[in-house]
Amino acid sequence: MKLSVCTITFRHHLLCFSEIVEWTQRNGFDGVELWGAHARNLMQTHPEYGSDWLRSYGLSVPMLSDYLPTDGDVADIRHRTIQLCRIAQHWSARKIRTFAGNKPSAELSREECRALAGRIGAIAGIVQDHGIRLLVETHPNTLADNVESTLRLLAAADQPGLGINFDALHVWEGGDDPVLARRALAEFIGHYHLKNVRSRTELGVFAPENVYSAAGSRDGMVPLFDGAMEYDCFLAALADECGSEASLEWFGHDCFGTLARDRLAILSRSMSTRGVVGSTGAQQVRLTESRVASRVASSKGHSCT
């Protein structure tokens, strides 16, 4: 698995981008996932930074993480999408992350669901025309807040260029088993976000209004293997996936220390299970084989109708 750091981690830090890149290289990461706001500003103020410059460090930008509009004027949505694609091309980013609206799937009518899926499909088509893939993130309070609604979104959008940014914690938050969910969505997954929380009761710490606030609480944000979601089985299940890419999405304090330790912990577990899935993970994988096959089959043809 290729691992990247997210520049959103440093949203409230006074750091040069070159400092982040140099640290990322020294600590063995493969890339830098650029927050859309950072990508735009860097392109304007430091045009010398780009894919060639980053490649000189042995790094790449696998994905831009942004928030494309899904309502409003169609011409404006198209204009903003094309602008973002050009920024992604500057960084040679192959993927753009966005969200499927801002309402829980359970609160959307069939007509709203169909309309939103259609708009996302149209945006994905524009992105694909630029040689990039649009990934919708699995996230609460969106149309992709559980596996079934995500599969319905993908079917209704009917756009081959549309994929999923699989945020493992948010899938778990939505009530789905991440191992089962990953297998159900496997053909659509283009990237993974990895993070954890101390307890399910503290998931609110990741609410956007808290995360983006400089004065927001970070209590409950914990290193990857110290939280309530079980990552050993999930990462073991990824062992058969070649070329997967993931980002450590850390929002808490001690950014550099936590990211470095989490990367080493992932590497250590990967080496210890290389070629062999641990007994617990093996049982889980065997359990999912038949269950997921029937689940995916039952979801085929589902749409927002």
From TrEMBL:
Positions of the Xylose isomerase-like TIM barrel domain: 22-254
Which PANTHER family does the record cross-reference, listed alphabetically? HYDROXYPYRUVATE ISOMERASE, XYLOSE ISOMERASE-LIKE TIM BARREL DOMAIN-CONTAINING PROTEIN
Q: Name one Pfam family in it.
A: AP_endonuc_2
* Name of the protein in its database record: 3-dehydroshikimate dehydratase
Please give the coiled-coil regions recorded for this protein: none
SUPFAM superfamilies linked: Xylose isomerase-like
Instruction: Tell me where on the tree of life, at the top rank, the source sits.
Output: Bacteria
